[in-house]
Amino acid sequence: MLPFAALGFYQRSLPRGVVVTLLCLALGVNSYRASRRRPLVISQEGLYILMLVAMSVGFNEMSLAATFWCYPLPLYFLFTVRQRLSNLVAGTWLLFVTSQCFARLDMEIALRVSLTLALVMLMGRTYVSMIDELRESLRKQAFIDPLTGLYNRNTLHKKLVHCRERLNRGQEKASICLLDIDHFKRVNDLFGHREGDVTLQKVAHTTLSRMRKIDDVFRFGGEEFLVLLSNADASEAAAAGESLRALIEDECERPDGVPVTVSIGIAELEAGESIQSWLHRADLALYEAKNTGRNRVAVAPPNPASPALKPAAGS
């Protein structure tokens, strides 16, 4: 666009030269800031107003020639701003251009410009919507387990680090419940992998229904799930784990009517503890629950060096 700004000065059209130059500078500065992941200097709303001013000057001085700029400028907003604002921009831009065309051009030309501009903006909006849907699909594939709808391990580490930071600041304690479906291999062997997937979905749904809104549930791998309990110590987590264990046994069953049971390992995060140590203690507690008969809850002791693990009360 800079050559057209220079052409405006050359043709002694000071308003056109100044406005187009300002527009170029604004676009350039914002593009540079965006490439550096820094806040924009000029808001998108301010930039849009500047574009309207530039088009007004263009219609006043060039009329038909100005219509060629009606097409690329709104596409910039369709691809760079949030959907609600871009839709507002598209609507007001179309009304502005249509009114200018019918006021300054022949009826036939004005009608063609208006219709083709509407078509271009509709196609642009459709294309941007497709890109947004694809982005959302990729986001879900990256962070959501497609079978159960739970968070996957890609999300887990960030959540656990956040809990550790809050604990170290003295703000909030946290515990994890590591669940494993008992004898899950038998379900696949007896009824097939499809029924195994159904069992995983049942356990996932039941677990979600039991947890609070502030808790997070993850598919940890295979037939293992992890529940992150915010603001809960080991005893509170053990009570929640026991309640969950009983609920799964009551509500989930195999095709032959045999109840689905889970073993659960509990570990409360300690100050200064690493994420790996926290998960390892929960895994040791889960192993203890499995090793002492399954369908029970075991709690990792506060001291990571202690090999003793105690079952939760009532498990």
Give a description of the structure.
The protein is 62% helix and 10% strand. It is of the alpha+beta class. Strands 2-3-1-4-5-6 form a six-stranded mixed sheet, with helices on both faces. Helix 1 runs antiparallel to helix 2 (14-35). The longest helix has 37 residues, at 107-143. It is elongated and about 90 Å long.
| Total domain modules | 2
Biggest β-sheet description? 6 strands, mixed
- By CATH's scheme, which homologous superfamily of the largest domain applies? Reverse transcriptase/Diguanylate cyclase domain
Strand content: 5-15%
The H-and-E topology, N to C, reads as HHHHHHHEHHEEHEHEE
Total strands: 6
Radius of gyration: 31 Å
> Mean pLDDT, as a whole number?
87
Instruction: Enumerate how many helices there are, as a single number.
Output: 11
Instruction: Give the CATH topology of the largest domain.
Output: Alpha-Beta Plaits
Strand order of the largest sheet: 2-3-1-4-5-6
Helical content (DSSP H or I, runs of 4+): 55-70%
Name of the CATH architecture of the largest domain: 2-Layer Sandwich
Cα(first) to Cα(last) distance is 73 Å
Low-confidence stretches: 304-310
Provide the CATH top-level class of the largest domain: Alpha Beta
